[in-house]
Amino acid sequence: MKGFDSKYKDLPDYILKITHQIWEDKDVESINQYYAKGMPTRSPQGVIYGAEPVVKATYATLKEFPDRQLLGEDVIWIGNDDEGYFSSHRIFTRATHANFGVYGEATGKKLMYRVIADCACRNNQVYDEWLVRDQGAIIRQLGLDPQRYASQLIRDEGGINKCSVPFNKDIPDDAPIDGIYKAPTISKENTGTRYANILTQIFNKDLNSVEKNYDRAIQQEQPGGFTGHGREEVTDFWNTLISAFPDSQFTIEHISFTEEKDQAKKAAIRWSLIGSHSGNGNFGKPSNAPVYVMGISHAEFGPHGIKNEWVLFDETIIWKQILMKTG
């Protein structure tokens, strides 16, 4: 890869190795080497810029969870030397809540949860990142409730008028670096576009799309640490989310995919759901609160459609947006 250290054989190798170096080798300061100056890291919580806040947050997480392991389940990627590279890295985390931190007093509980990090890379650095963590799974395993946690978060941050504002459609896309990531050119017919079309059909309330495009034995990993099996449970999951935000605009933000010989075809889609909490679902009675849902989904296809799917969004930040409206 042009501009990358020769010790990395390809983009997945680069992503997996720097992640291990930073977290499990605890070489936190190497973030200053691998993150471009001023780069934006976008998450449901908001946007931070540059390596310094990432270094600070990494040290804090390792203090609270000193034995944290980041098991790289997959890296779905696109790109080339001329247009740059993009990875969607799905991570299965194991960690013990051993010390006081953002989740309160140490509980000694062992946690398992997923994170997906979308990274734009060039010249041996990450220069743009989108990150979604399954905070709902963390909260539940600690014996807490996502709604109550969001309420406490608002109080801890000084109340509705002072708390940090979650990522939303009004946050500007520009950032103080040269050349914000632009997706490389991809063919019109590919696994990523196929998956994007399936999700678009579902969010357009064509739930027959599940019957047509998912394997009968589909296994779907859902936010909150839940797992759905079979088309009926997958349909229920999507229907419950759509019902809570029935008038919201669904948008495909990014498409990536891998199609390798003797491997399952895979796709990674970053998407958003923007509108208001105007329906019933998993987020209580309609509040009409403005909501931005940042989602990332991965899918593996088999001969009968989608065989495995992973869907991530942060329930606690959805609740925070609702509670900032309702009090």
Chain-wise SSE layout:
Layout: H1 11-23, H2 31-34, E1 40-43, E2 46-49, H3 51-64, E3 69-80, E4 84-96, E5 110-122, E6 125-133, H4 135-141, H5 146-156, H6 191-203, H7 208-213, E7 214-222, E8 226-229, H8 230-244, E9 249-258, E10 265-276, E11 290-302, E12 305-312, H9 315-326
What does this entry show, briefly?
This protein is an alpha+beta fold and 327 residues long.
- Stretches with pLDDT under 50, minimum 5 residues: none
Question: What percentage of the residues does DSSP assign to strands (E)?
Answer: 25-35%
**N-to-C series of helices and strands:** HHEEHEEEEHHHHEEHEEEEH
Backbone shape: globular
Rg computed from alpha carbons, rounded to a whole number of angstroms:
19 Å
Please work out how many helical segments DSSP would assign: 9
The average pLDDT score comes to 95
Look at the helices and sheets and give the structural class. alpha+beta
The total strand number stands at 12
Helix percent reads 25-40%
Largest sheet: 6 strands, mixed
- Side-by-side strand order of the widest sheet: 2-1-6-5-4-3
Report how far the terminal alpha carbons are from each other. 51 Å
Tell me what you see in this structure.
The protein is α+β, with helices and mostly antiparallel strands and 327 residues long. The protein contains nine helices and twelve strands.
Can you tag this structure with a few keywords?
327 residues; alpha+beta; 6-stranded mixed β-sheet; 9 helices
